Amino acid sequence: MDALLEDLTALLGPGAVLADPSEREKYETGWRYGKGRARVVARPSTTAEVSAFMAYCHGKGLRVIVQGANTGLVGASVPDEGGAMAVLSLERLNRRMEIDPTDRTALVDGGVLLSALNGALAEHGLHFPVDLGADPQIGGMIATNTGGTRLLRYGDVRRNLLGLEVVLADGTVVDTLSALRKNNTGLDWKQLFTGTSGLYGVVTGAVLQVAPLPRQRAVALVALSGGGAVLDLLRSLEGGLFEVFTAYEVISGEALAAVFRHQETLRNPFDEVPPYTALVELASSLPESSLDLASLLEEALGAHMEAHGEGVLDARFGKPAEFWAIRHHVSESLRGEGRVLAFDIAVPRSGLPAFTEAVKAWLGREHPFMRVCDFGHWGDGGTHLNLVWREADSPLPAAELVPRVQRKVYDLAVLEHRGSYSAEHGVGPHNQHYHDLYTPPAVKAAGAALRAHFDPEGLLGITRLW
Amino acid sequence: MDALLEDLTALLGPGAVLADPSEREKYETGWRYGKGRARVVARPSTTAEVSAFMAYCHGKGLRVIVQGANTGLVGASVPDEGGAMAVLSLERLNRRMEIDPTDRTALVDGGVLLSALNGALAEHGLHFPVDLGADPQIGGMIATNTGGTRLLRYGDVRRNLLGLEVVLADGTVVDTLSALRKNNTGLDWKQLFTGTSGLYGVVTGAVLQVAPLPRQRAVALVALSGGGAVLDLLRSLEGGLFEVFTAYEVISGEALAAVFRHQETLRNPFDEVPPYTALVELASSLPESSLDLASLLEEALGAHMEAHGEGVLDARFGKPAEFWAIRHHVSESLRGEGRVLAFDIAVPRSGLPAFTEAVKAWLGREHPFMRVCDFGHWGDGGTHLNLVWREADSPLPAAELVPRVQRKVYDLAVLEHRGSYSAEHGVGPHNQHYHDLYTPPAVKAAGAALRAHFDPEGLLGITRLW
């Protein structure tokens, strides 16, 4: 055994240090992107152990990548290919989980899984409402600032984060784990560690604001004639149902048709596939005896159709599980259609139709074999603008085609529509090039100043925010 | 006319530069604290003019204090007594006000008044829901991160800020004025300028998320037996009425009695003055035909009284204007009782009764002539713990008594109850000493690093966040 492994084993205990290549593999491979090689995987189980580990690495000049559940989509939680980085896995840092129903908060270790937290919260009639497809750790959710399908109502992680515990690159523990909703005492320290991929410190603990579990939900699928009609309906629903309006997920006809081609158990509830379909969800903590959400939703849609009759083609009610299943099978179904180039774009939501049309127009001229199969969180301005094509139809190899199309689509989003090349997923190696291209110089300079302050040796992480 | 005034007049136009002492006075005096002397008052009316002004001051080494509507409560918007600082007033920077009902956003200049914005929004059935007693400018609200009485439902300014335009100390304009709800591209730049008193840059523009105006409100005053009963009711209401629960303002018996002693037009709706009174407000964008808030509130209180009968002494419904008037006259009424030492404290809300009791116990031993007249935003953990005494009863002069009591009350809040010495108002000269005492060294160090980065000459502001 080499000296590093001996030292770390002495520091963290034998079960905490993985050096065998077969044991390391899952920590070296990202969920969607990223594949590297680790010098060692360390799995401390307390904040004090994380601190000791960081101080040790700092002393030795050992580079560290922090890893939660490794469910991120931009490759920001796996080591590079050099084989010299240590993976700091927080999977055993999951002892603290203190729920306070009066504060409506949960104090958790950074390595606690979202599912574990929600399981414990459910016993108190509570949940952490940042709703995702994956099952990440809370520390990773903070470092990524995850959003999800119900951001419209509950906000992102940043919005629900009250207190933080971080370990800095030199091992210093900074404990601001307080359950304060109001604390205007200058710089809001926790913001520096939210959405910054663990580059300025390791999130080892957090106090989260949580919410009561809804007592009822109502869901509708609404067939719409186009992007303008999608926005008209959004505006009507927000104006009339604001506080119970929890999701507005939109699927284009191209994407919806793919779902029904590839998912045998799912059926089109409409007679045809409409240009756009909106999944509308309402939820409330009020009982049905006070507020009948299902009737409310039918009435609101009826009133909207009277005012904007031409835009709404059809509507179906009820069946939340079935309607959400359609939404959740879009990505998988598109992969059955051919090559897919996925995007995670946001623009101001009023600009979604014009942005989508601009992409279609450009593709029609330049790469007419690519189909735009867009879907996403229109309530938040988010669009997973997936492009689908058959390899055989492309005169260019994918390795040439993909970067060319990415660049143009991102240019349209960022430069022409004041949008974002990464709405939800973060930067990471996958988006590094676009961060470098589009980030204002002043923002990069602040990122560099913070890096120089927190980690002058540059030991933490593999993303560059400067 | 001296060279400075000549230069600034050439840069900004004659109406923009005030040098006469009588004209300067209102810019030199804080709302509650702070009185200084300005070298000059400059009032640019565009971002380009702010930039030119800052570049000029940077070149000359002239110190600048940024001032909005000057309604802050910690003296952070007035110059020091040296007479060498320029006041940068944004009162004429109020041209842009672009409301987009589909985005549900407003793009505004930093100098736009909250009342002006809400007036324009009302025409679209919208409002900016950060609800305050004063009428500040939007830029000042961002630099202070104001909270107010409906934070429980709508959050603070930070929560509703989507995009920002700032002018840095050297005159550089950084425009991130985008209406994005999702934008996970690393460091969230706008957080550096939110709640930091204009120390890192001048907020010249913002994109705010706004909300539909409620269609109905229901209000109750509930008489409660003590702090535990206040928290029990809070928990019941949040669990059952989450999304329509917009305010929970609590007034102690000492404070309420003062209101009825000093406000002739206001009457105690109860037979006696209860130990605590909670003002409960519900609001909804749903029409009464779908949701009857008044009945809902009565039912919810009835159900709570069945479960926790001993804690609820009485309840009165309706009369929103009258009930809010009682709440809004607390501060003024206490000033009629004698000397007042006001606080702006937050603790985790479950700790409010124990914290309040700890203050009472200490005062009972050390300064028994001081009465605790607490009231505040219990839903957010906020308490304006006002102490009232008759000067004649104190063996110590106020100049000795006040700092001694402040220090102990803040120690109890911050050190014993993980609370904040400034829940809403910010740091400023008024709280500088307590910032220096209680801020963790790592947070100060980050504040210093950002100052060194943004403003190495230290020209902006008079608060120190390091």
TrEMBL record, chains A, B:
Cofactor dependence:
FAD
What is an example of a Pfam family matching this protein? FAD_binding_4
The name of this protein is: Lactate dehydrogenase
Keyword ATP-binding on entry: no
Keyword annotations: FAD, Flavoprotein, Oxidoreductase
The highest taxon in the source lineage is: Bacteria
> Under the GO molecular function aspect, what terms does this record hold?
FAD binding; oxidoreductase activity
The residues covered by the FAD-binding PCMH-type domain are 33-213
